[in-house]
Design a protein that fits this description.
The structure holds three protein chains of three kinds. Helix content of chain A is 73%, strand content 1%. Chain A has eleven helices and two strands, in the order αααβαβααααααα. In chain A, helix 1 (2-32) packs across helix 9 and helix 9 (227-237) runs parallel beside helix 11 (271-288). In chain C, the strands form four sheets. Chain C has a six-stranded mixed beta sheet with strand order 6-7-8-3-9-10, sandwiched between helices. Chain C has a six-stranded mixed beta sheet with strand order 15-16-17-13-18-19, sandwiched between helices. Chain C is globular and about 65 Å long. The chains are: A mainly alpha, B mainly alpha, C alpha/beta.
Chain lengths: 301, 319, 486
């Protein structure tokens, strides 16, 4: 039972959590600078298309690069508006999501490369780490995953260290808590926010890149499927800390993976219930954890 | 390029049929959801969930239409309106309760509820309300009594548009001229001062506005199934609930202007559809225009108009 | 006088849009002195020092630091040149510890232990008691100010610019701060004290500079000028004179406000006000003193009907006029027009349609009778200066409740002229309308001049303080504030 159900389920959970964790790490950094990026969904779908276009042209490496670049392009529009022009973050983010979905949809239907039968993309399958992947139970769950997952194993602790133990990390947090105080201390608040948003764009792009290159192997319209919004909820559940956010991403990876598990178990429940599960879970967890977490004081302003 | 623009123009304004039967028909749901978003934003409630509320309104109205196949029109249509408002209002009510009792930001909860509504609709048209042959993911067609009357002979413009206009006038009057409307605007621009200086119960008022906003969005769904599709099916809304934000903001949250911007975006939708049909340009391109317009409005709008409510959290004790 | 000044500002000019904030303002600050920069609100004091600190770029003018010409493009550059500024509204990150705040703005690795050690070192060296690990949000206001000072000193500031540092402090805390400033200057440091409290400035300063309407109108050594000359320099020729003290009220007059054994507990169950009793009769103005967080905020809100007591009985007329301390968040909606803000006070009670035209006429009357400088009833409140907003709020509240007003720090942040108008309007509640007012202020002079009786809040208890036999002896109030004679 464990070998047949639990291990494949946990493997799928980690695999599904990987793109979510990328997006959530980006969102985390943006939110700690005081910016809520509701355009993350648009950033992710742009990353998907960027990965598909660049991946088809130059292989998987180029695909990830294209994904990050596309994400940063979307993010730079967002930063231009909310940081430089000081527009409302929520509405601007919504507009960016619409823009991302519209642009990618239009390009998908007009670019010649998507015209014929679905072009096969170079994908990055699981790479088992010798030794570690042989560990009982967790071996294959944690160490027989795509390279992108391993990148996260490095990124998350690095980010945690950077935020707590560097002056740049201190400046990031101060900007989200009290931009006036940060400004008075000589911190260039707008530059901090621009950088944070660009980072979140690159991470959102990589979320899309992972979806395309390590999971689906192609581009579909709307394939981001709300992951940007889920990532924002993940950051709240992770209490704005890198390790907590990684943990929350794993929980959601599990929720998405449950879809596959229950489908394979052939339960007599409507499959739409499992489609809705991650979103229901978000609401339930946000409600259950109320008051426990404290958002950056000036988030969204 | 000219060919594309021509197709676009023809589809939106090119003929009486294009205007009355395409542009205004598509403007109708946008009018309702645009008013819904404008009302919510005026009160400082960031309702991004008009899409889900619209779908629940459509489900509510469809249940009435399908359960009362033999009832007279004068009974069925008011009941459909009521059920639409109830469905949308209840869906918004979930987010309102989550915000008030559990402190969940409505921005996140309403988006989650949009996805849940989509899944719920998907299940309903394959389960409880599926047509008898159980082949298509849709309900049985409504009986004639539940099909809303057309306003102009030979055109597809239906009752929903007239109701939407009435709602716009009503909403404008309430917001601009009444004490209730003033309270709503006050909590949107300065919830703490409204509570402390004016004794307004900001939290319960914003929760009620949230529900009414959802009810307005629910009317959009009722109007779509009653006036256009005459059946419940999955692809009911091409994202009207999201376009609503652009409709409301372009109108500067003024209900009178929402009428104008709803027609404008209705024309975009109608023209976009024609563009896809005639010139092969995907209709999703319209979303790019919507987003660009939204960004343009944002760049020109002083953000404090939408802002005060969130900067100053509502003080519980009026301190 | 041979050594160059620590900081010289010469012929500094700055416009903001259409208004001239600084018109060739100058100021010479000698090393090792306390320099008082005086003037009414809006005279340009803060702007001039923000120019010195690099937060505002002047249109023209020269800045010299130790005799060398400098031009700071940011606060960071000014800090590097040995300047430190403590702003009127503290520039601390509330969620951070004192040590994290002190370290803010650095580069490279951040070591919390090292940052804490640095704060501890500065604190002991300069005699400022502060816990480096304390979260700023948890600190009382006086300690937050020490945190600001420690931060500036931890960044090796030799010239400290303090902007209205005593505005939020109790008399005792202020006294301690002045003593500390004196010691800092005697040890070779330099202090610029921006203030509009003349008497306090004169007690501590070596030199004074007076600004009026962006111009330097007087610059002299403290001993070389008289108090009268300074008052005239600050105010121009139009000098406001103290009004005669209010007569004591008739002890048999009708009761307007009363508390009888009132306790109020917050959401956590802590009694912020315990077993408080008092009465205020017609013709009285009750003064309330208290260190921030001692229960006076709750006392005022109970009297104004904004809070309901946990136990005990509160008597107040309905409605009560209330002028809260945080005007922009609690009293008005800046984005709304004056007319809408007038209606705001009744927003919870109104029903049906509103006749906006009639309301605009009412608003015009308030604007006229309280000398509110505004372009008209349709002007957004945000376009009014702080003093005019406050006059408008008091006018509005008196319109609702002519005989019962509760006011919290009503003159904070206002210049002398606006404050005088406001205090006169408050007196009128007792003198002309035969009503009653309750006024809380951190300014002891103001409370003594305005009120007929005084109560002191200390740790949630309310005690009436009888006036001392010698009216110039204020120690009785200072002791009561600290709970020393209870």
């Amino acid at each position: 039972m464990i070998e047949l159900v639990l291990v494949p389920f946990l493997e799928a959970a980690v695999r599904t959590a990987t793109p979510l964790a990328f997006a959530a790490m980006g969102e985390l950094v943006a939110e700690r600078s005081g910016v809520i990026n509701l355009g993350l969904e648009g950033t992710i779908i742009a990353g998907c298309l960027g990965a598909a276009v660049a991946g088809a042209a130059g292989g998987a490496g180029a695909g990830y690069f294209g994904a990050a670049l596309a994400g940063m392009m979307m993010a730079s529009v967002f930063a231009l508006f909310v940081v430089t022009l000081k527009t409302d973050q929520i509405i601007t983010g919504t507009a960016l999501t619409l823009l991302g979905l519209g642009l990618t949809g239009t390009l998908h239907r007009t670019l010649p490369m998507f015209a014929g039968p679905a072009a096969s993309l170079p994908t990055t399958g699981p790479v088992a780490i010798p030794g570690l992947s042989q560990l009982p139970l967790i071996g294959s769950v944690l160490f027989a995953q795509p390279l992108a997952t391993y990148a996260l194993y490095l990124l998350v602790p690095l980010l945690a260290w950077w935020m707590a133990r560097t002056h740049a990390g201190l400046a990031l947090r101060a900007t989200g808590e009290s931009p006036d105080a940060a400004h008075a201390a000589g911190i260039a608040v707008d530059r901090v926010r621009w950088s944070a948003i660009l980072f979140s764009g690159a991470m959102g792009g990589l979320c899309g890149g992972t979806l395309v290159l390590a999971q689906v192997g192609g581009f579909n319209e709307g394939m981001s499927a709300g992951r940007g919004f889920v990532a924002i909820a993940i950051v709240v559940l992770g209490r704005w800390s890198p390790l907590g956010t990684a943990g929350a991403a794993l929980v959601f990876g599990g929720a998405f993976a449950l879809q596959y598990l229950f489908q394979s178990l052939e339960l007599a429940l409507p499959y739409q219930l499992f489609l809705a599960l991650p979103y229901l879970l978000t609401l339930v967890l946000l409600a259950a954890l109320r008051g426990r977490a404290r958002a950056p004081a000036r988030l969204g302003t | 390029m000219t060919e594309i623009l021509l197709a676009f123009w023809d589809g939106a304004f090119g003929s009486a049929f294009a205007f009355w039967s395409a542009t205004l028909v598509r403007a109708t749901p946008l009018l309702f959801v645009g008013l819904a978003v404008a009302l919510a934003f005026r009160a400082g409630v960031l309702n991004i969930g008009a899409e889900g509320q619209l779908l629940l309104g459509a489900i509510g109205a469809s249940v009435v239409a399908l359960q009362l196949p033999d009832a007279p029109r004068l009974l069925v249509i008011p009941l459909m309106l009521l059920a639409g408002m109830t469905g949308g209002g209840a869906w918004a009510g979930v987010a309102a309760v989550l915000r008030r009792r559990f402190g969940v930001l409505e921005v996140i909860s309403t988006i989650m509820l949009n996805f849940i509504a989509l899944a719920l609709l998907g299940w309903i048209v394959r389960g409880p309300l599926q047509e008898p042959t159980k082949v298509y993911p849709m309900s049985s067609p409504f009986t004639v009594a539940a099909q809303w009357p057309f306003l102009i002979p030979g055109q597809r413009l239906h009752l929903g548009f007239a109701i939407g206009l009435g709602m716009a006038v009503l909403l404008w009057y309430v917001l601009a001229r009444t004490a209730l409307g003033f309270r709503i605007r006050a909590i949107g621009l300065g919830a703490r001062a409204a509570a402390s200086a004016g004794g307004v119960h900001a939290e319960s008022l914003s929760a009620r506005v949230f529900v009414v906003s959802g009810a307005l969005a629910g009317l959009a769904g009722a109007s779509e199934v009653g006036g256009v599709t005459w059946a419940l099916y999955e692809g009911l809304s091409p994202g009207y609930g999201y376009t609503a934000i652009a409709v409301a903001l372009l109108a500067r949250l003024d209900p009178r202007w929402v009428v104008v911007t709803a027609v404008f975006f209705g024309a975009l939708e109608a023209g976009g559809a024609a563009m896809q049909r005639e010139a092969g340009v995907p209709a999703v391109a319209v979303q790019i225009i919507t987003a660009t317009l939204l960004l343009g409005v944002l760049a020109l709008t002083r953000r404090q108009q939408l802002r005060a409510a969130r900067v100053a959290p509502v003080a519980k004790d009026g301190a | 006088m041979s050594a160059p000044a620590a900081l010289s500002l010469r012929a500094v000019h700055k416009r903001f849009g259409g208004t001239v904030a600084l018109a060739d303002a100058s100021c010479e600050i000698r090393t090792g002195t306390v320099h008082a920069l005086l003037g009414e609100n809006g005279a340009g004091k803060t702007t001039l020092m923000r120019v010195a600190f690099g937060l505002v770029q002047p249109d023209r003018g020269t800045i010299l630091r130790d005799g060398r010409e400098v031009r700071f493009r940011s606060g960071r550059e000014a800090i590097a040149a040995g300047l430190g500024m403590v702003h009127q509204h503290f520039m601390l990150v509330p969620a951070f510890t004192v040590a994290e705040n002190a370290a803010l703005g650095g580069v490279g690795r951040f070591d919390p232990a090292q940052a804490a050690a640095r704060v501890r070192d500065v604190a002991t060296r300069t005699g400022l008691a502060i816990d480096p690990a304390a979260r700023v949000a948890d600190l009382p206001i006086g300690a937050q100010q020490r945190a600001e000072l420690v931060r500036a000193l931890a960044q090796d500031a030799q010239v400290l610019i303090l902007d209205e540092p005593t505005a939020v402090l109790t008399p005792t805390e202020s006294e301690d701060l002045y003593k500390w400033m004196r010691r800092f200057a005697d040890d070779g440091g330099t202090v610029v004290l921006i203030t509009h409290k003349l008497r306090e400035a004169l007690a501590v300063a070596d030199d004074v500079t007076v600004l009026r309407q962006g111009r330097t109108v007087l610059a002299a050594a403290r001993d070389a000028v008289s108090e009268d000359a300074l008052v005239e320099a600050i105010m121009g020729s139009d000098v406001f004179r103290d009004a005669a003290p209010l007569p004591s009220a008739d002890p048999t007059a009708a009761i307007v406000f009363a508390l009888d054994g009132v306790t109020w507990r917050d959401a956590a169950g802590v009694a912020r006000l315990a077993n408080a009793s008092l009465t205020v009769r017609r013709g009285e103005i009750l003064g309330v003193l208290g260190v921030e967080g001692s229960g006076q905020a709750e006392l005022l809100r109970l009297l104004a009907g904004r809070l309901t007591p946990t136990s005990g009985r509160v008597v107040h007329p309905a409605p009560v006029g209330f002028v809260p301390g945080d005007r922009l968040h609690d009293a008005v909606i800046p984005a709304m027009s004056a007319t809408e803000n007038l209606v705001l006070a009744e927003a919870g009670r109104l029903h049906g349609a509103i006749d906006w035209r009639a309301r605009a006429k009412e608003t015009a009357q308030v604007i006229a009778s309280y000398e509110v400088r505004a372009s008209g009833p349709s002007a957004a409140l945000a376009t009014l200066s702080g003093g005019n907003q406050q006059k408008f709020v008091l006018g509005r509240e008196r319109g609702i409740a002519p005989q019962a007003i509760v006011a919290e720090n009503p003159t904070r942040g206002l210049d002398v002229r606006a404050a005088a108008r406001l205090l006169a309007a408050l007196r009128a509640v007792a003198e002309e309308e035969n009503g009653a007012a309750v006024v809380c202020s951190t300014d002891l002079d103001e409370v003594l001049a305005l009120t007929t009786r005084i109560v002191v809040c200390f740790a949630g208890t309310v005690t009436e303080v009888a006036p001392p036999a010698d009216s110039s002896d204020r120690s009785v109030y200072a002791r009561a504030l600290l709970g020393a004679n209870l």
